[in-house]
Design brief:
Shape: elongated
Helix content: 40-55%
Oligomer: single chain
Order of helices and strands: HEEEEEEEEH
Number of strands: 8
Strand order of the largest sheet: 1-8-3-6
């Protein structure tokens, strides 16, 4: 009997957990390019989580906008490096999430983003409140607290992943600049040496005027 009660409690809390449809992607956006991604909201009131971070390219910034099924802009930003938003789908239909690399003429931006549609089912009151609720309230609270902690850990991992990619991109860019600086410096030194040898050689080999005495 106790085993059946525990099994029922586990099934109840698994059904109470929010169901989510997510899409985690990484895409490259060329200069003057606009890319859009779409998700469907099946019913009004659903929560849409939207996260993005520019991993490499230029100043690590991008323009973005979010539109509802009626083509109304509900969220936008200019030259943003990263963002983490939660939207409420008040209208059923297709929502668009667009990135635009319009400020760059040559630089390609690498963007990591995550779009998640989450719907939380309503909690139904148990048939016998005095019986089931007493056994499940503590487990229910622990379950939702654990879910919140896991989401915080996921956001922290994304943050450090972004910092790592940006740091690697910065180091690689600095290495390329130092390499070409050393190449130009070496060419300048070689050119100065050749020029000095040529000038000294002209001093000793150039014939001057001859005069008879």
């Amino acid at each position: 009997m106790i085993f059946l009660l525990l099994l029922y409690n586990c099934f109840l809390f698994l059904s109470l957990l929010p169901s989510a449809r997510s899409s985690a992607l990484t895409t490259a956006i060329a200069a003057n390019e606009r890319l859009c991604f779409y998700v469907d909201a099946d019913k009004a009131g659903e929560k849409i989580g939207f996260y993005f971070a520019v991993q490499s390219g230029g100043s690590f910034d991008i323009d973005f906008d979010v539109k509802d099924p009626n083509e109304k802009v509900i969220l936008d930003g200019k030259s943003e490096r990263q963002g983490d938003y939660v939207l409420t789908a008040n209208t059923v239909g297709e929502y668009s999430f667009c990135f635009e690399n319009d400020m760059s003429t040559l630089t390609v931006k690498l963007v990591d983003f995550d779009i998640m549609v989450e719907s939380e089912p309503r909690r139904e009151a148990p048939a016998k409140p005095g019986q089931v609720a007493d056994h499940t309230s503590a487990l229910e609270e622990s379950t939702f607290r654990l879910n919140s902690l896991l989401l915080n850990i996921k956001r922290t991992q994304k943050y450090f992943h972004t910092r790592e990619n940006r740091g690697f991109s910065l180091v690689r860019s600095t290495q390329n600049r130092l390499f070409w600086y050393m190449v130009l410096e070496s060419l300048g030194i070689v050119g100065m040496a050749v020029l000095q040898v040529y000038i000294l050689q002209t001093f000793f080999t150039k014939t001057g005027r001859r005069y008879k005495v």
